[in-house]
Amino acid sequence: MLVNLSNILHRKGHSVSVLTTVEKGPLSGFLEKDITIINLERKWKWNPLTMYFFIKKIRHFDIIHVHSSYNLRYLFLASRIFMLRKPIFFHEHFGDINIDQHISWHTKYIYPKTIMIAVSRQIAEWAINKVHIAEKRVFVLPNTVIKENIKNSSFKSRQVINLLVVSNLRPTKNIIAAIQVLEALLLQKNNFHLTIIGQIADTLYYKKIKEYIKEKHLESYADIQTNCTNIQAIAHEYDLALHTATSESGPLVLIEYIAQGLPFISYNTGEVVQQIKNDLPEFIMPSFHIEEWVKQVHLILTMDQYSLQKKMQETFDRYYSVEAYYETCMEIYAEGLQL
Fold first, then answer.
1. Cα–Cα–Cα angle for 195, 289, 182, nearest 5°?
2. How far apart are CA 127 and CA 123, in angstroms?
3. Domains of the chain, each with CATH number or no CATH
4. In what helix (H) or strand (E) does residue 241 lie, and over which residues does it extend?
5. Which residues on adjacent β-strands are paired with residue 285?
6. Tell me, what DSSP letter sits at residue 101?
7. I need a labelling partner for 339 at 20 to 30 A (CA). Which of 41, 86, 144, 173 fits?
């Protein structure tokens, strides 16, 4: 979201800089080339000289927009020490909100002093009702993506049906459920292959996935890739995507699928699902019954793919246009600065 929002604001003529605390990271390569990247190269979290340099670098900006709670805590402490008196816009996209509504002492203390931008209504309600942030300080800005013009899409008949899972590798993403769908499909016909793409967020869960694949003798039918960052560019290589997470705020990847016309099946969680479920009901599952997912895979694969792509294009234009996202964001900034 940081990359998308920065690029959108830059293309609209705003002066945008991105500050990272430790390293630029691989996604920095997707920022517009004229966007300034400031990297603190922080070695020790509590180094006061680094904090001073941080505040000095951001003091002249009109809008300070922060992602991730650990970055917020660092900024909040530095701003108190070096007397930065500017509103902080905090973008909260915590993905486990359905299963983890724990409130730490620093959350309760810091969050109400920010202007919160929630990516889902559920996060906004949690912020107001549980964290007790004033309602006027909480805004909802659902995720969006910048659609890439990829010209490789085709509907050629393939001998192998390629399934895709894009998800960070951690337990909430419930990736083994997707592998179980693959197992059930292979019992009927052995022309399916599953590719799992994601960063290793939980090493133990990553090992558990690999062990499960090995235990079920699925090495020829499933593989894991951890070095892919541009999903839109490869979406045309797949026939169908699966999204089995038990809790989500977005998720962004579903919008990327819609942008590129890749059909998918997702569990009923997250703001994106709430937005699209009346437009694309065949893509949403109310449970994790494997046999129902298998039936839905077959149903979607036999549907007219051109008609599906048209519906997805209409859905993307309806909910995820860059113009609508930009206007909402600017309204949030304007209102937040008045508080």
1. 25
2. 6
3. 2-144+321-338 (3.40.50.2000), 161-319 (3.40.50.2000)
4. strand 240-243
5. 267
6. -
7. 144
Rounded CA-CA distance 93/124 in Å is: 10
pLDDT tens, residue by residue, 88-141: 999 998 766 666 677 889 899 999 999 999 998 889 999 999 999 999 999 999
Task: Please state the φ and ψ torsions of residue 162, each to the nearest 5 degrees.
Answer: -95, 120
The Cα–Cα gap between 96 and 120 comes to 12
List, for residues 128-182, the tens digit of each pLDDT value.
999 999 999 999 999 899 999 887 645 555 689 999 999 999 999 999 999 999 9
Name the token pair of 211.
């062990």
| Closest among 157, 156, 237, 159 to 195, alpha carbons compared | 237
Rounded distance, CA 110 to CA 115, Å? 10
Q: Is the pTM of this model over 0.85?
A: no
Q: Cβ-count burial of 161 within 10 angstroms (0-12 exposed, 13-18 middle, 19+ buried)? A: middle
Is there a contact between 231 and 248 (Cβ–Cβ < 8 Å)? no
Q: 10 Å Cβ neighbour count for 112?
A: 15
CA distance 119 to 142: 4
What strands, in cross-sheet order, belong to the sheet with 64-67? Answer: 64-67, 88-92, 115-118, 138-140
